[in-house]
Amino acid sequence: ENKFNIVGFLDSAKSKKNKKIGNYKIDYPDISKIDKKTNIIIASINSEKKIYKSLKKYREKGIKTYCLYNK
Length: 71
Prior knowledge:
The protein is built from two helices and five strands; from the N terminus they run ββββααβ. The chain has a three-stranded mixed beta sheet, with no helix packed on it. It is α/β, with parallel strands linked by helices. Helix content is 17%, strand content 23%.
């Protein structure tokens, strides 16, 4: 069984910044604040490809990004 330590959610919509989903804070993506050991899971079915492309700079820094719905 794999266990994950969910730290929070990232969303580029500034209107969602500092709001919460359950007990988890929603923050605006800022590459300087994300540890290289972090894994980003894209959980948007409608915008998954667009989000994946936009996270290229994160992958170039060694941050792993995964698509939840498509590979």
